[in-house]
Write a structure and sequence with these properties.
single chain, mainly alpha, binds fe (ii) ion
């Protein structure tokens, strides 16, 4: 389920590779959630727990690196997208709190699958809005060099990102 890292991407450094690097976060999240949801629908309890933990880690890491690196850079270089960024942060806030609940929930709980399903819907909505409404504008404003640099920051950030959903900055409501 883990996506290839920048280092293993053969076309890294070329223009479309750079753009893909900046877009990798949302794609990972969507795949993680879709796969996780499908598997948690049929798997046994232990399998549901394992998949849910993978989804939690994947989404936590991506939310953290986006908030630490991508959103601040976007805000600086494409200030017109600020309202979209602020909305994205509020969507992250809802998602990380759901992740924190799923983290502590018994996979045999009757609410488990429903919660995973709503999580998937929310992440799908979030990813679609980002990809359609404002990521293209940010990529254009950043240009190739900054995108390449940012792709490196995102990959490096993933290694030191927290695994606790409530350690993501947007979990804080203040
Ligand atoms: Fe996001």
């Amino acid at each position: 389920m883990m996506a290839p890292t920048a280092a293993s991407t053969p076309d890294e450094g070329r223009p479309h590779g750079c753009h893909r690097a900046a877009a990798r976060g949302p794609q990972d999240r969507r795949e993680a959630v879709q796969t996780g949801f499908e598997k948690t629908s049929d798997g046994d309890r232990a399998e549901r727990r394992r998949i849910a933990d993978e989804v939690i880690e994947e989404l936590t890491v991506h939310a953290w690196v986006e908030e630490k690196f991508f959103y601040p850079a976007a805000r600086e270089l494409a200030p017109d997208t600020t309202d979209h960024i602020l909305e994205s942060i509020e969507e992250h806030h809802a998602v990380v709190w759901m992740l924190s609940e799923i983290k502590d929930m018994d996979p045999g709980d009757e609410r488990f699958k429903a919660k995973m399903s709503v999580l998937m819907e929310q992440v799908r909505h979030h990813v679609e809005e980002e990809e359609q409404d404002w990521f293209p504008e940010v990529r254009k404003a950043m240009g190739r060099n900054r995108l390449t640099e940012l792709g490196g920051e995102l990959e490096a950030g993933k290694k030191r990102a927290p695994r606790d959903p409530l350690a993501v900055p947007s979990s804080d409501s203040t």
